[in-house]
Design brief:
Length: about 300
């Protein structure tokens, strides 16, 4: 029988850092502040065809990445299920620096949503930190790709070789990434457009969906480049979008579905939460005196 005293010394768990660290992790001393999602628009507009709220669905998706965190949501407009209500009665503690983290569910800078979030936070007086929106982020391009593929506008897999020829006359040969929220949103959509173009091997350009003339100019630019079947891909959750069907008909383009509640968006929201907590400080490594003493015959004190 082997002497248990000769077992190898116990190895201490090592905290992964740098480029290989899990981006969803955060320093444990922060505790678990609540994660509050700011859903753009009203509760009525955020309701899907199945009657389920976009906020409720997103909460379920985020919970898959942060099961230990209290997750709430509220809408930036209207009088039902408001963000101000979601910010009330947050548990605050001297043992952690924050009571909650607010994640706006917008895919780009949105002045209206930002103002509504700031007002709700100020009115509630809650000890929270507001993150950036969900974009720009590489996973947004992936989510847009999936939406376009589900509608049959593009291939489901990524670009093969250098061919950009559509397989049939129903597939798109050019994409307009539509944004809402102003000039900053269009700039962020430009980043997503570049990433989506790399995935599809097609010409992809950004446009402001709140300015039909601007969208028309972008569509015309695509046509001048040889595009015959352009499609508009709204880069937004959905409740903040204007009515787009009539505009698409007038411009002679196809219209893709908004992103809606999506697992990739849920992962980005969880990432934003972790980013804020990690930005508040870095966990200090234990000192030599704080480390447990090693065991084993090789580490016996001299007698």
């Amino acid at each position: 029988m082997r002497n248990s005293d000769r077992l190898p010394p116990r190895e201490l768990p090592k905290r992964r850092s740098g480029r290989h660290r899990n981006p969803l992790s955060f320093d444990s001393w922060f505790g678990t502040p609540a994660l509050i999602m700011a859903v753009p628009g009203t509760a009525e507009r955020a309701q899907g065809v199945d009657g389920e709220s976009a906020g409720a669905r997103m909460a379920e998706l985020v919970r898959a990445y942060r099961p230990e965190v209290t997750i709430r949501y509220g809408h930036t407009e209207g009088g039902e299920q408001t963000l101000a209500e979601a910010l009330t009665d947050l548990e605050d503690s001297h043992e952690r620096p924050l009571a909650g983290v607010v994640v706006p569910l917008v895919t780009a800078p949105h002045a209206g949503v930002s103002a509504a979030v700031d007002e709700a936070v100020s009115r509630s007086g809650a000890n929270v930190r507001v993150t950036e929106g969900l974009g720009p982020h590489p996973m947004l391009a992936e989510a847009l790709h999936l939406r376009l593929a589900e509608a049959g506008y593009v291939r489901a897999d990524r670009m093969r070789l250098i061919s950009v020829v559509a397989r049939n006359t129903t597939m798109a040969d050019g994409v307009v990434v539509g944004a809402v929220g102003g000039e900053g949103a269009v700039g962020a959509a430009g980043v997503t457009a570049v990433l989506l173009a790399a995935r599809l091997g097609l010409t992809v350009l950004p446009a402001d969906l709140e300015d039909e003339a601007s969208v028309g100019q972008v569509v015309e630019q695509l046509r001048q480049g040889g595009c015959r079947r352009p499609v508009i891909a709204p880069s937004a959750l959905g409740p903040e979008l204007p009515e787009l069907e009539a505009m698409a008909v007038r411009l002679g383009t196809e219209l893709g579905a908004p992103l809606g509640p999506d697992g990739l968006l849920g992962k980005i929201a969880a990432l934003r939460y972790a980013e804020v907590l990690n930005s508040l400080g870095v966990e200090q490594p234990p000192t030599v005196d704080e480390l447990p003493a090693p065991v084993g015959s090789r580490h016996r004190p001299e007698s």
